[in-house]
Write a structure and sequence with these properties.
Elements lengths: L9 E6 L3 H12 L5 E7 L3 E3 L4 H5 L9 E3 H7 L3 E4 L2 E5 L4 E4 L4 E3 L2 E4 L4 E2 L7 H4 L1 E2 L3 H17 L5 E6 L3 H20 L7 E7 L10 H13 L3 E4 L3 E9 L4 E7 L4 E4 L1 E4 L3 E2 L2 H5 L10 E3 L11 E3 L4 E3 L8 H6 L1 H12 L12 E7 L5 E7 L9 E4 H16 L6
Parallel strand pairs: 1-2, 1-9, 2-5, 9-21, 11-18, 12-13, 12-18, 13-14, 20-22
Antiparallel strand pairs: 3-4, 6-7, 7-8, 10-19, 15-16, 16-17, 23-24, 24-25
Helix pairs in contact: 1-3, 1-10
Flavin-adenine dinucleotide binds next to helix 1, strand 2, helix 2, helix 6 and helix 9.
């Protein structure tokens, strides 16, 4: 006689609704595990898809088109959802502590909370600059800015972007494109807008092949974006504040100073302190060290993926493309450990093809790689590449649309 296996009740808690967890939730919805209670704790109920975010800033996608709504997704996965920010972990008693006082118990934990740009060492940056993450805050400031420019298009505006990785580059091109659309519409000269991009190293997009770096630098220069390469911003201060505008001064170690009205901060990724404080093994920047199985090096009951994880054997740049690819292996190993099976190693690809939007409904293709030494495919901006990127991104997002 066949007996029904008695399900063991286990609590799997996911912290952060990042790219990998969105995939994990979708896959749990398709292939649930009886006896496992799934919980998602995330700071915001909508999570931005990094591939379409620059396109949203450029005005090509709506807010909904580039965000995954985690409520119907959690519903599909039959997961409990808490919209709250995790502030601490107790790994001896397996508890998650949230900002609103909520305490959640777990047997198994997975962390996919992304990263935030590091500002700590630069005086005035935390106070006056707008960090690119959390995305919801970036967008709040961006909507305010485009509204202000729409109301007073005749007023000159100067914007600074600090950080010349792919995020900073795409942000600069997308912001310029959107603001030019507004100025064009109101018949104002585009010279009313000035954009500055600061980059500590002498080249943009250090994780990309030389040919891509060269090409992107040429595009930015042609578009009139003022590049400050080899410049380390060391101080940010507010000079004046009027009813309609604020003026800030950006100071660099070289002595260069630039005045601007808004500062966006897209520098190197950083991790929150509470991970290290919990005793989790982290790298020097505070990112969780994980094995090839995405399991913490120090705590077997913890898994991590996306920006917040550093694969000990395969370190990769902090990019959405890796967080997406880790989704399925993370799901597989979470299910395997819950079923008492051995874990499977995952090896991320060394090279990756990036389609980088250039803010004009074109995209260039560039090969990035883990060590920035190889990579050959660099194609100049083209409409067809944009269409291809658009198709890939929309197809990805389609997986997370649910009927009301
Ligand atoms: C402007 C810009 C453009 C970019 N463009 C690209 C690109 O074109 N291609 C690319 O590959 N990468 C790009 N990136 C990088 C990309 O955004 C990140 O690598 C990617 O988002 C990482 O995904 P993730 O799953 O690790 O986390 P995220 O997508 O950042 O998601 C983290 C989630 O965790 C939640 N969370 C955070 N902290 C907590 C907490 N304490 N408690 C609970 N929940 C929490 C957040 O609300 C969020 O839902 C860009 C970045 C920026 C800033």
């Amino acid at each position: 006689m066949q007996q029904n296996p008695q399900p063991i009740v286990k609590d799997l808690v996911l912290i952060g609704g990042g790219h990998s967890h969105a995939i994990v939730l979708k896959m749990f919805g398709v292939k649930p595990l009886p006896g496992v209670r799934l919980t998602l704790i995330t700071a915001a109920s909508q999570t931005a898809y990094s591939g379409m975010l620059p396109g949203h800033i450029a005005g090509f996608y709506s807010h909904d088109e580039c965000h995954i709504d985690l409520r119907p997704l959690a519903n599909f996965a039959q997961a409990q959802l808490y919209v709250d920010t995790v502030v601490a972990l107790d790994l001896e008693n397996n508890k998650v502590l949230c900002a609103n006082g909520l305490v959640v118990d777990f047997d198994l934990l997975s962390i996919d909370i992304g990263s935030t740009p590091a500002t700590i060492s630069v005086s005035g940056a935390a106070e006056y600059a707008i960090a690119a993450k959390p995305v919801s805050q970036l967008l709040e400031h961006w909507y305010e800015l485009i509204e202000a420019v729409g109301k007073n298009p005749q007023e000159p505006i100067s914007i600074a972007i600090v950080g010349g990785g792919v995020g900073g580059v795409e942000l600069a091109l997308s912001m310029q494109s959107r603001l030019h659309q507004i100025l064009d519409k109101t018949q104002q000269p585009i010279k009313n807008l000035e954009l500055h991009l600061f980059q500590r190293s002498t080249e943009l997009m250090p994780n990309y092949h030389q040919s891509a770096r060269h090409q992107i630098q040429q595009i930015l220069t042609e578009r009139g974006i003022k590049l400050h390469l080899g410049e380390s911003v060391c101080n940010v201060a507010r000079i004046t504040q009027s009813e309609t505008q604020e003026i800030f001064e950006i100071k660099c170690e070289s002595g260069l100073t630039v005045e601007c009205n808004k500062i966006f901060w897209v520098t190197q990724a950083s991790a929150p302190e509470w991970l290290k404080n919990a005793g989790l093994g982290t790298d020097e920047q505070g990112f969780i060290l994980v094995e090839d199985t995405l399991q913490s090096q120090t705590h077997p009951q913890v898994f991590a993926s996306g920006d917040i994880a550093t694969m000990v054997n395969h370190p990769r740049p902090k990019a959405g493309v890796f967080a997406v690819r880790q989704g399925k292996p993370l799901f597989d190993n979470l299910q395997r450990i819950l079923l008492g099976k051995s874990l499977k190693p995952y090896r991320p690809q060394k090279q990756y093809l990036s389609l980088i939007g250039t803010g004009d409904k074109r995209a260039m293709s560039a090969t990035g790689n883990a060590y920035a030494t190889r990579g050959i495919i660099t194609l100049p901006p083209h409409k067809l590449l944009w269409h291809y990127k658009d198709w890939i991104d929309r197809r990805f997002m389609e997986r997370f649309r649910f009927e009301e």
